[in-house]
Write a structure and sequence with these properties.
The protein is of the alpha/beta class and 392 residues long. It contains 14 helices and twelve strands. It has helices at 3-6, 9-13, 20-23, 44-56, 68-82, 98-110, 127-133, 153-159, 182-192, 252-265, 271-287, 290-312, 337-348, 374-391; strands spanning 31-32, 93-96, 116-121, 137-142, 164-169, 198-202, 228-233, 246-249, 325-326, 350-351, 353-354, 366-369. The strands form three sheets. A seven-stranded mixed β-sheet has the order 2-8-7-6-5-3-4, with helices on both faces. Strands 9-12-11 form a three-stranded antiparallel β-sheet, with helices on one face. The structure holds pyridoxal-5'-phosphate.
């Protein structure tokens, strides 16, 4: 059989993930700064809450939109944490299987063949494929090291055409850790105000900001709620990656369109994961999100250490103010990012991810995730130092 011939052209065109390649090679002698997930267990009290309910309750499908109480809590969370208020009811919220599914649903619900969606690179690996699998054209706008990897309104403006359906904005960003200040976002709001362009925001790292910076959500800017779909989830802020719980919030008609696709393809997000989401938010409101604050404090000291280590080796490392990644430049070594990461893995058994895995604009950098123990980070950085001595 010609299996390749059977696979759709679009799927064949999508390159294999530049991240997974590195994980498939791991054993205990390796140190990984590769995977973008918290190293903390899901907070105990969330697990206990779910375990108790599992003892006595059936595990049925939930409503297609998701548990109504969870959706109420999410409305409160968005309002109290990010000043996203003005949604009329829980019909503005859809519970999904991770933010990943929310991204896919948003694209599939709005895109007609040939519609253009602007996104920024380097970025999370699923954006361009999600746009293209939905039949759209993914239009990359480059963010630059010298701009602290912030998205510039001028660059977005230059990418807008009559076919632009939406702009996808994701800050704090994976892989750069960049954040946007209010004024940066306002400049983009000025561009779309008065147009039919939708803005889709991936706020998955919104809780993870440093240096006293608070996340500013695009949806909270004056007049932007009506044109914004907010995507978020529990993976990063509550250390719940494997539970697969996310959500979308937005104008009720758009959320209803997403629900139509969701109910046909997924029925609902896993019910026990939704219980976990209820526990995460109820307990969080009760103690001002102490578990998340604890994790952020831990990340802060690791972040400081790893930034200083890269800069002391002469690998220019911006100070990222969000997420849990650093994105140092390896240009001074003369290697491509893939050569650098392959060499580091082969010689010192440290896993990092080439910047090129996050789009062409990531070339010249590597992504290191510091959501791993300080002990691992220290050892990894010793090995990076030794590797640099070998190749310089
Ligand atoms: C920017 C970004 N968005 C979305 C996701 C996926 O999140 P989830 O686990 O909620 O599907 C990730 C995962 O790494 C991410 O980095």
């Amino acid at each position: 059989m010609d299996y390749q011939g059977l696979i759709s052209n679009c799927v064949r065109r999508i390159p294999p993930s530049g991240i997974r390649k590195y994980f498939d090679l791991l054993d205990d002698s390796h140190i990984s700064l590769g995977v973008g997930e918290p190293d903390f267990p899901t907070p105990d009290r969330i697990r206990k809450y779910v375990a108790e309910r599992l003892k006595t309750e059936r595990v049925p499908y939930s409503s297609n939109s998701g548990d109504p109480h969870l959706r109420e809590l999410i409305l409160r969370f968005l309002s109290e944490k990010y000043s996203i208020s003005g949604y009329e009811s829980i019909e503005n919220v859809l519970i999904t299987v991770g933010a990943s599914q929310a991204i896919d649903l948003a694209m599939r619900s709005i895109i007609n063949p040939g519609d253009e969606v602007i996104y920024h690179e380097p970025c999370y690996v699923s954006y361009a494929p999600s746009i293209e699998l939905a039949g759209g054209k993914a239009v990359a706008v480059v963010t630059k090291h010298e701009d602290k990897f912030r998205l510039k309104a001028d660059a977005v403006k230059a990418a807008i055409t009559p076919k632009t359906k939406a702009v996808l904005i994701a800050f704090p960003t994976n892989p750069t850790g960049a954040i946007m200040e209010r004024s940066d976002l306002e400049a983009i709001a000025d561009l779309v105000r008065g147009t039919d362009i939708l803005v889709i925001i991936d706020d998955i790292y919104a809780e993870l900001t440093f240096n006293g910076k608070q996340h500013v959500s695009f949806a909270a800017l004056p007049g932007m709620l009506e044109r914004t779909i907010v995507l978020n989830g529990f993976s990063k802020a509550f250390s719940m990656t494997g539970w697969r719980l996310g959500y979308a919030a937005g104008p009720a008609e758009l959320i209803a369109a997403m629900r139509k696709v969701h109910q046909l393809m997924m029925l609902c997000a896993p019910t026990p994961a939704q219980w976990a989401g209820i526990a995460a938010l109820e307990q969080g409101f009760a103690d001002d999100f102490a578990d998340t604050r604890y994790m952020i404090n831990e990340y802060e000291s690791r972040r400081r250490f790893i930034i200083d280590a890269f800069n002391s080796y002469g690998l220019d490392c911006n100070e990222p103010e969000g997420a849990f990644y650093v994105f140092p430049s390896i240009r001074s070594t003369g290697l491509t990012s893939e050569q650098f990461c392959d060499g580091l893995l082969a010689s010192k058994k440290v896993v990092t991810v080439p910047g090129s895995a996050f789009g062409a604009a990531g070339e010249g950098h590597i992504r290191c995730c510091y959501a791993t123990s300080m002990e691992h980070i220290e050892e990894a950085m010793r090995r990076v130092g030794a590797y640099l001595k070998e190749i310089r």
